[in-house]
Amino acid sequence: MTTMLAVSFNGALGHAGLLLVLGASLVGALSTGFAIRTGNRVGLRQTPVYAWLILAGALVSTVAMQRALEVRDFSLAFVQQVGSYNTPGIYNVAAMWSALEGSILLWVLVLAGFTAAMAWRFRDRFDDELVGWAMVVMFVICTFFAIVAFGPANPFAAGPPWPVGQDGPGPNPLLQDHILVLFHPPILYLGYVGFSVPFAFAIAALITGRVGEGWLMETRRWALFAWGCLTIGILLGGWWSYEVLGWGGVWAWDPVENASLLPWLTGTAYIHSVLVQQRRGMLRVWNLSLLIATFALTILGTFLTRSGVINSVHAFAAGQVDGYFLGFFAVVVVVSLGLIAWRGDRLRAPGVMDSPVSREGAFLANNVIFSVFAFIVLLGTVFPLIVEALQDRRTVVGAPYFDRLSIPIGIALLFLMAVAPVLPWRKASGELLRERLFWPAWCGVGAIVVALAAGADGLWPLIGFGLGGFAGGAAMRQIVLATRRQGWRGLVGRANGGMIVHLGVIMIAVAIVASNAYTSSTDLLLTQGEEVEWNGHTFELVEVVAETDARADAIVANVLVDGVERGPAITTYLNMGQSIGTPSVATSLTNDVYLTIAGTQAPQPGATEVRLEVFSKPLIIWLWIGGVMMAVGTILAAFPGRRRRPIDPVSSPIPTDDAELDAPADDESGQSDPKEVAGV
Q: Where is the composition biased (Acidic residues) (predicted)?
């Protein structure tokens, strides 16, 4: 009887929460929009109430789902799909986002959190139409996801009768094999959903006609936070892939991986191009288009991930949400483009570019490259779907397509990262460039010499290392100049924090170049008690043992790698009957030794021989160190920096107030136009 009451309670509580989200979102959108149109200030001041109700409903539903998973409430279809008595606690929590319905619930929770955060941040400004319309857009987005969660992806739908005492299958085995599954999806969702806020302000700016630079200032940190979370989420996904999937790589150009990369590319372009609009009043339509594209691509990515139209280790099973997401994607694109066309006369940029050899010229080139990259990735991702729809046949766009086209793009971006930070606004002289690029260029030469000394060869890798050193030198130059002028505050602010982000990107780029160019692999047949040498490392089989618990049987090959024991395994999850390889990685600052048991057949416990697939992968750890550096730089960039007042001469000291004026490279040259710096 107690169990039956609990079953009824979880489902009813979850439905009540979702109903609250749906009702508050719908009423909030209609009432706030009506209040704006009629000038009803009392109605506008009620806007935060709807946001808090949405958050309350999402929290109630999430708590209900976590409770249902905790008590193994098999009356719910979702728990029947992913629940199991044998799932460890941390993976039981993560089971919520291991399948379609729960992942949509997580999306609703994150979206509700951003909506409430917006309501709190702008709590004193709801008389402002721009803020009001932005809240309306957020409410509309909440309404859509609440409809999906309440309809085709209902996590609280009742399941068929479940025999008493029967256990469920548990989450996908790949999602209960590493702690990163607890962090990767939520952080990625923070990035995806976070771009809803700048998108909402962009639409509000178009509706109100206030398409100047004001809304950009309101959303700068929101966009930066979303971009940072998306960056870390993608890197954590690569780390999870490396540690779990057993193929020895971090990125396979899988369609679902590409779906997360697309909004990151357009979001990165926006983070740079928005500076041009703030400083020169240029690229208004372009920035709006980038934000709209970024948000639309998050919806498209959700469709690709959750509709079941693509085959991927990351994709969920086929659902009934494809029509909903495609329809919403179409609405977003059509309405946004319609608003841009409507406001076309107000979107003419007041500024013009004086010279392509300038900061704004570099940012424009940066945007073109990122946009081309996004188009290449999008084309390669959706091309198989287009072929299947038109010709009823299946095809695959493989990694060689993406690798071949991404190499020159990566080289061009590294070059821009080296040159752009030293360029002033408006235009640069040859003498100025020679002076500012002197030490960065020597850093590039030094990087090539070090690479050659370490045994590197091949044209493209050496170009990559050289440009990495060149770009790293330019970033370090900026940081050194800023810290000499401002002390520790030379590390904060948009420009200085951005340089630290650049250093993280360069670390990642160099690590990718090294691992792609110099990874080696082999099959080793190890015999117990006999040491084998390969690629400068020693390997010795100690024993093959079975480790069994109620959840899984694991056959572990304990191997000494350079005298340290490692344990690659093949694990069979009993409830699902599925076996997966579990790699073991010996990590150092210069090289990873990556071990997996070769084949899909596990050796017998007590076997005296085992065949291993071994990879030697250089500099992999710098991918993760670079990711940490990017996260730190993003946080520092969110803090206000300091710079001279625009009307002061270059020789003036840095003011001590906290005005949010960041230090650009042209401070040292004095070439900036004070009126432009002031944002006029």
A: 657-670
